[in-house]
Design goal:
With 88 residues, the protein is mainly α. The chain has one domain. Helix 2 runs antiparallel to helix 3. The chain starts with 8 loop residues before the first helix and ends with a helix. The model has no long low-confidence stretch (mean pLDDT 89).
């Protein structure tokens, strides 16, 4: 029975020699992308806090705090995505 088409570990080891010089930059891009994704996933939770703790309770201090956190998460996520795109 013939082997199915696909890459073997030997092929991946050969490719490793080409990737090795870029490993630091690649790791940085992956970490920055993960941070941007984490911030994007955090925003729905902040929206929940905005509604439950600030708007429904008429709490102006919580409104300012959560709105500031939403703004910071949006700006940081945007900056992380720009930084990741420069790294590629």
């Amino acid at each position: 029975m013939p082997r199915p088409a696909g890459a073997s570990w030997r092929t991946y080891r050969r490719l490793g020699t080409f990737v090795r010089p870029y490993l630091g930059g690649l790791a940085l891009v992956v970490l920055v992308s993960l941070a941007g994704t984490a911030l994007a996933l955090f925003q729905p939770y902040l929206s929940k806090l905005l509604i439950d703790r600030a708007l429904l309770r008429h709490d102006m201090q919580a409104l300012v705090l959560v709105a500031g956190l939403l703004f910071a998460a949006t700006v940081l996520g945007f900056l992380f995505n720009i930084l990741a795109s420069y790294g590629t």
